[in-house]
Amino acid sequence: MQRLTLLGSTGSIGESTLDVVRLHPQRYNVFALTAHTRLDKLMEQAREFSPQYLVVADEADYTRATQLAEAKGINSEIIAGSQALEFVSAHEDVDTVMAAIVGAAGLLPTMAAARAGKKLLLANKEALVMSGQLFMDALESGQAQLLPIDSEHNAIFQCLPQDYVYGAPERKGIAKILLTGSGGPFLHTPCHELATVTPAQACAHPNWSMGRKISVDSATMMNKGLEFIEACWLFGLRAEQIEVVIHPQSVIHSMVQYTDGSVLAQLGNPDMRTPIAHALAFPERIASGVAPLDFSTMTDFTFQAPEFDRYPNLALAIEACQAGQYATTALNAANEIAVEAFLQGRLSFTGIADLNRKVLDALDSCELNSIDDIIGWDNEVRVLARQAVTQPSQSMLGT
Ligand code: NAD
Ligand code: MG
């Protein structure tokens, strides 16, 4: 029996994880569930899975959560705040942690799971992008096992040789990683119309159903940019060893190209329950509830190179990846502020990449040697990015 903590259980990945867990009650037991705003959803999950702990991220919600639980006859212990998130991540009774909080808010509890040597299922790519080497060091010091949940990285993981050597793809005859992406909802929209697209249009992804932040990131292809950086860390790759390929049908989830000309791909319907089931059961295989791929109904199967004019955020992320940790942490922070402003109607869609570029251009390189450095830098960049939202015409230099 594996005991699970689900960080971000009320989100899209959290719910998909519980869908898989529900199919295998003899294998998985839920130890803790965590939520930020959707307390009703959390209580519904608690009634079904009876976890030992329920965590509400915001301490201000503690009283309301205990009242809700009492009214519904839920016996789980309720705890609140960021330390409570770390507590259920690192708890000795937990085997596996699903890191599915969105954004920088997931950094500390995800790091806690790494340090505590858990089997860590990583969906929260922002945590890795913002902390890079420190995150990898935490995994090593805790002897944690990391399994990627992002469908692309899960696909790459499945296509790499079992004796893959971290940081040395050429030793196993690997020429390149082909990171696929659908291109999002605006693949064919004339570029001059992008300035006026709405949050609802940006969140209407053609193939995947996801949370709002990652949906916007998919539309700008910042998601692919963050995944590019994520792939560098997860597999020890240099930027030139990764190529982004647009594949609008999202059936191939990524590929590994070998020097002999072979390309190995992982395919499946675009449904996150497949990578979640893969990682939960690894190295075994279990049912995920996903319908099998039906090739007879597949009409198109196409590929193209990304246009960087259409997706300036993708170019920015690759640049940041080459520039180093200060730049990737900064880009992630600026982007979180920009996406939030776009979703609130305070910034245009094309303003997201403009803001990210402006913030990155205003920064000088610096060393980030600890998690405190990372959090301090992340906060500094957020201040700058918020200023850029409210005073878009002002120069950011000298702030
Ligand atoms: P979502 O918005 O649906 O859910 C986010 C979860 O995080 C919720 O449970 C919410 O309560 C929690 N949360 C939000 N803010 C928080 C805070 N300040 N403190 C604590 N908890 C907080 O997002 P999602 O689509 O499930 O994505 C989660 C993560 O997985 C993201 O990092 C995303 O990039 C990654 N991911 C998602 C998908 C997908 O298909 N949805 C695919 C690959 C990777
Ligand atoms: Mg992905």
Topology:
Blueprint: E1 2-7, H1 12-23, E2 28-35, H2 39-49, E3 53-56, H3 62-71, E4 77-80, H4 82-90, E5 96-99, H5 107-115, E6 119-122, H6 125-142, E7 145-148, H7 151-159, E8 174-181, H8 199-203, H9 212-220, H10 222-235, E9 242-246, E10 252-258, E11 263-267, H11 273-281, H12 312-323, H13 325-343, H14 349-361, H15 371-390
Parallel strand pairs: 1-2, 1-5, 2-3, 3-4, 5-6, 6-7, 8-9
Antiparallel strand pairs: 8-10, 10-11
Helix pairs in contact: 4-5, 5-6, 6-10, 6-13, 9-13, 10-12, 12-13, 12-14, 13-14, 13-15, 14-15
Bound molecules: nicotinamide-adenine-dinucleotide and magnesium ion.
Magnesium ion is lined by residues 150-152, 227.
Structural summary, described in words:
This protein is of the alpha/beta class. The protein is 45% helix and 15% strand. The chain has three domains: 2-148, Rossmann fold, CATH 3.40.50; 162-270, no CATH class; 324-389, Orthogonal Bundle (Rna Polymerase Sigma Factor, Chain: A), CATH 1.10.1740. It is built from 15 helices and eleven strands. It has a seven-stranded parallel β-sheet with strand order 4-3-2-1-5-6-7, sandwiched between helices. β5, α5 (107-115) and β6 form a beta-alpha-beta unit. α6 crosses α13 (325-343), α9 crosses α13 and α13 packs antiparallel against α14. The protein is globular and about 55 Å long. The model has no long low-confidence stretch (mean pLDDT 96). Magnesium ion is lined by residues 150-152, 227.
